[in-house]
Amino acid sequence: MKSVIPVKLPQQSYDIRIAPGGLDYLGPWLAAGSGPDLGPDSGPLVRPGQKLLLVSNPVVFKHYGKSAIASLEQAGYSVSPLILPAGERYKTMRSIEKIHNLAFEQRLERGSAMVALGGGVIGDMTGFAAATWLRGIAVIQVPTSLLAMVDAAIGGKTGVNHPQGKNLIGAFHQPKLVLIDPTVLATLPVREFRAGVSEVIKYGVIWDRPLFEALEAAPRFDRQRTVSDDLLQMMLTHSCQAKADVVAADEKEGGLRAILNYGHTVGHAVESLTGYRQVNHGEAVAIGMVAAGKIAEEMGLWEASAVQRQQVLIEKAALPTQLPAGLNIDNIAIALQSDKKVQAGKVRFVLPQQIGAAFVSDQVDPALVRQVLTQIQSA
Asked: What start-end ranges are recorded for coiled-coil regions in this protein (predicted)?
């Protein structure tokens, strides 16, 4: 099943293309602006200059680098690959320097482009490198993890981590195209697939009640082989559409877009404090959603039955619902104050009101946060 989801923005609209086998048509789509069975666009997608820099990690490149480069070269592009280590702890300015160095060596021009072939880490770094090279060149996102497909590759948020917090250094830089080929999920590790499901659950809670209910009705979705083709298509299309709708309404996170951070306030603190090694992003977001749900319940904003329904989905995905063992709550409280979403010294939480609706609040009592974090501490 193929679909095209437009992200409509004032200055740079683009398509999210979901197409099994689409990786083989990456080159033609960039060069001609159309592709098999998807119909023509209003104009060329990108038409970048002949020089492309393709950034990936060793595992992804081993599986898909050759086919991506072959497609691009057959379309007439000159491709320079750069392989960076996998993992959130490598999302640093040092990695950005490596991308910039190769861009300089290959004499990338303002008409050139960078291609991100990988998960969220590769997408974030490549997008930031593109945003800052020659004051901004094109970036094409080709996500290979479920989490990147439904979230990280869409919306133009790019950046790297600072030693004191996640994604504190970054820029908004929209891609020219997001190409999602679901067949690449066949090689995705089970743990990474579950991490992506965490973000899908997020969309169900904050925006898309039918998606939430479809997950409730599914017998299993803790690994890809337990997910039917129809459910996977729904997870991809509904999540991408939700992200597209929110980004179109609020590109630079001046208001509505902040709801996409549901679970991320506590989640980012957990990631940072565990050195990006003990839990991955999706697992941290799952823990953060549990915390935010309980905070909303204690504030009388969310019914206990809805909190339990969310808990069941997170557990069905085999995601964690408690803080990692040994994590100090005092340290979490300090890390929350360093979160990039803090305004006027107040920590902002995304809180659900009902399944399919959420809002942002800076009126959460720090004592309540500590109370909830204590409740979800590992025994």
From this structure: none
